[in-house]
Amino acid sequence: MDRTVHVLIVEDEEKIRQALCDFLEFKGFAVAAAADGIEARAAVEAERFDVILLDLMLPKVSGEQLCAMWRKQDIQTPIIMLTAKGREKDKVAGLNSGADDYITKPFSLEELLARVNAVLRRTDPARAVGRAFSFGGWDVDTAALRISRDGRGQTITSREASMIQYFAANPGRVVSREELYRQVWDDDMTGVETRTTDMHIAKLRGKIETDPASPQIIVTVRGAGYMYVD
Q1: 218-221 vs 225-228, strand pairing mode
Q2: What percent of the residues of the chain are helix, what percent strand, and what percent coil, each to the nearest 5?
Q3: In the predicted structure, residue 128 carries a pLDDT above the cut 70
Q4: Which is higher by pLDDT, 222 or 130?
Q5: Which residues lie below 8 Å from residue 140, measured CB to CB, with a gap of 6+?
Q6: Distance between CA 49 and CA 58 in Å, rounded?
Q7: Which is more confident, 93 or 34?
């Protein structure tokens, strides 16, 4: 891992909670734990986590209620639901409340680790594509802030590097201006930022496109946003 991943474990059964804490700490994660919905809510208000492992059946405030509340507050931290319930409708309810994945007890610790890493790859571009990768025929080095092709290189800004990295992690998928702004600027779009994203896209196209007026790498999807064509 390039940096320590912070995980919140929300589980009311002490033995399970402690086992998860011990295992993930052994694997190099920074771990915080909560035994009920009230503690979990306070933890998320006080600290930023990279992923939340959330038991569905919790005292005081259920996992489903917590998940729905966080999503309503636009907290986008990946959430994996943990529950003894295995019925289809319970899985659907958990996912509909905003969970990113769902694992049914009993589960192996290695399976849980695989699901955590999978969710992190989907939500963290650096983990999905790394720091050096190919993008639209260019060799990209986000650490050095340089791109090169056919022996020709040029510098990019840190913002442009983040944009390239996010598009590279989501090939063939429409990325809205709101999503791009939230991921790259780490903030929510309020209105004027629409122009900000468009200006940065235009500058980036000027560096990577053969003909910026007719882009072939980052294309505009009218009324929806942008898409990286790999």
Answers
A1: antiparallel
A2: 45, 20, 35
A3: no
A4: 222
A5: 132, 133, 134, 146, 147, 161, 164, 165, 168
A6: 20
A7: 34
The pLDDT of residue 39: 96
**Counting Cβ atoms within 10 Å, is residue 38 exposed (0-12), middle (13-18) or buried (19+)?**
middle
pLDDT at 3 over 80: no
Q: Mean pLDDT, to the nearest integer, of 19-47?
A: 95
Which structural domains are found in the chain, ordered by start? 6-123 (3.40.50.2300), 129-228 (1.10.10.10)
Q: Which two tokens stand for residue 148?
A: 């090169």
Residue 1 has pLDDT above 50, yes or no: no
| Sequence-separated contacts (24+) of 67-74 with Cβ below 8 Å | 67/94, 67/97, 67/98, 67/99, 68/97, 68/98, 69/41, 70/44, 70/98, 71/97, 71/98, 74/188
Q: Quick one: tokens of 34?
A: 């909560």
* pTM summary value: 0.60
Q: Look up residue 110 and give its two tokens.
A: 């290695």
